[in-house]
Structure formats: C-alpha cells, structure tokens
Amino acid sequence: MDISHRPRRNRKNASIRKLVQENTVSVNDLIFPLFLIEGKNKTSEVKSMPGIYRLSQDLLLKEIETCMKLGISTFDLFPNLDAKLKDKTASESLNTKGLYLSTIKKIKKELPEAVIMTDVAMDPYSSDGHDGYVKNGEIVNDLTLEILAKMAVAQAQAGADIIGPSDMMDGRVGYIREALDDQGFSNVSIMSYTAKYASAFYGPFRDALDSAPKFGDKKTYQMNPANSKEALLEADLDYNEGADFLMVKPAMSYLDIIKLLNDNFNIPIAAYNVSGEYAMVKAAGAKGWIDAARIRDEILLSIKRAGASVILTYFAKEFALAKK
Ligand code: PBG
Q1: Which structural domain range is residue 33 located in?
Q2: What CATH number has the domain bearing residue 316?
Q3: Which among 10, 184, 286, 324 is placed 20 to 30 Å from 237, CA to CA?
Q4: DSSP 8-state class, residue 224
C-alpha cells in the first residue's frame, strides 16, 4: 500500500505516545469545592455525591491541610446554613461572626498559603433560595448588585483571594470590582461565572446546601443551554468589567463553550465540573458499569483540551491521591 501518512507510527508504544501527548491535567490546574456546616467535629456525606462531605470548621481546616500536602492549593467554599439564618436580603452573608466569614478568616490565619475562593450569590443565605433579591416573584437585578457588592467586600475583608460571583445578574462584575477597589481590595481577583447555564446538573449541589429555589427556576438569570453566541456576549461584558478569569459551567456538556471563550479571550478560562457530573460518574462506577477512575481522568482531560486552564472539580482530592 502506498500510504504516505501513517498516524499510527506516533502511537506505536507508550513512550512515543507520551512524547506526542498534547495535553495533560495537573493537580495545579484544579480547584477543590468544599461544603461547610455548623458544629464541631461534624461531618455528613452528601447522599448524591458519594465521597463528598459537609465539614464543620475544624474538620474543614484539617481537610485543607491534607489537600495542600497533596498539591491542591485553591479551595472554593460553600456554606450550608440553618434555615433560621436565611432571610430576604441574605443578611447572614455579612455576619463576620457567622459560619462562612469566620471560617475564611481562620483558614487564612492558620493556613495562609491556601488560596481561598468564595462564592458570591444570595442562594445559600436567601429564604427564597434564589441568587438574587426577590420582589413580587421577580429577581430584581440592580437591588441585588448592592447586596452582592457588600457580600464580596465582606469576604475580601475576611481574607478571600478570589471572589466568584455565581449569580448571573447583569453588571455585577463591574459593580463588585468597583466596590472592592474602593475598599482597598484591588488585589482580590474575580473569577466570574460568565457562562452559567440553567442546568439540571446542579441538583446534587442544591441537596448539599439545601439551597433549591423555593419557587420557580433560575431561567431568568442563568443561560439557556441552547445558546452559545450569548456566552460570547456575557464574556465580553465580564472581560470589560474587569474579570480575571472567565468560567463556564457546567463543563462536560459545554466543552464547545469552553473552546469558544478560550479562542476569543486572552485571560484564563475556568470550567466547573459540577455536582451532577460527579454524581453520574460515581453512580455508574458503583454499579460496576464503568471504570470510574479512568472516566474521571478522561473527563478532566477533555475539559483541559477544550481550553480550560483551571478546573473546579469534586474529583480534585481523589485525582491528587491517584497521581501521587
Ligand atoms: C449558586 C451555585 C450553584 C453552584 C455553584 N454556585 C447552584 C445553582 O446555581 O443553583 C452549582 C455547583 C454544582 O452543581 O456543583 N449560586
């Protein structure tokens, strides 16, 4: 046969395959999301996320220390709050003695090397379970911005390194950037949830935090999964409003969006490999239907190959353990 190009030559043994490998996932690329609960020495597994636990402050600190030894440096924290603390205006988010802010402060004091990312949105603190302020059944954009900016400043004061607005209100990146700068936090970064889709993949996360909306859905602020041009519009806005990272969420079903943003913007693209994506792999793995560890690695690699240089994933710790 006269075949001039034989791509199989570059696959003929493991060494050559390694030599021509285009992408790799490293522990350095990963951010580990962690769930925080009240109490001492308390842990409770998230039912729909086997291997993922809500941890009280003391155990969370230990977990961060363990993960740092494995090479994970950045952690994204989410609080699970008692329903009694939730109200219309998410006021608990400003409580410096409350669970979230006091824990951030403690981590930064005891483990100053840990990079702490925080979530800015009203849902964990809101009696309505929405990311924004609710009035007559509507999510009111501009009133929400004021609440989010105060929340972001409070988190920066507690020591947050990266602020992650996950709310999808219009104009929030610029509004938060200005508030942070005004208060002297020009070194605090913003990783914007830029293209955050109204997705069923967030189900297990809402179980973890008991934060599901009390009415309706999030479709008036999170994006329609059918759209990609709209992701470019959101990215343009966030970039121009001063975002340091642009995030796509979820990841697996949105690899085209990751590539689109990476092809068009010269700042790092992050992807959130969300709770439902984790749950599917764990569930099928537990049934013996798939090789969950290999699938985990293949999923992370595909997200990296699509163009995300940062991946938020519940697999972070087990990936780090597996690569040790
Ligand atoms: C809340 C928030 C959500 C996630 C991160 N921040 C859920 C939502 O928007 O309802 C989802 C994360 C996951 O599913 O792993 N603003």
Answers
A1: 22-323
A2: 3.20.20.70
A3: 184
A4: P
- How many domains is the chain partitioned into structurally? 1
| Ligand 1 atom 6, closest CA | 166
- Runs of H (alpha helix) within 215-254: 229-240
Q: Is it the case that residue 306 has pLDDT exceeding 90?
A: yes
Cis preceding linkage at 250, omega within 30: yes
Q: Is 35 in the pocket of ligand 1 (CB under 6 A)?
A: no
Is residue 324 scored above 90 in pLDDT? no
16 lies in some domain: no
Residue 112 belongs to some domain of the structure: yes
Task: Report angle CA 93, 223, 236 to the nearest 5 degrees.
Answer: 90
CA angle 61, 80, 184 (to 5 degrees): 65
Asked, for residue 15, whether it belongs to a domain, the answer is no
CB 32 near ligand 1, within 6 Å: no
DSSP 223: B
Report the C-alpha gap between 243 and 260 in whole angstroms.
17
Active site residue 249: yes
pTM: 0.97
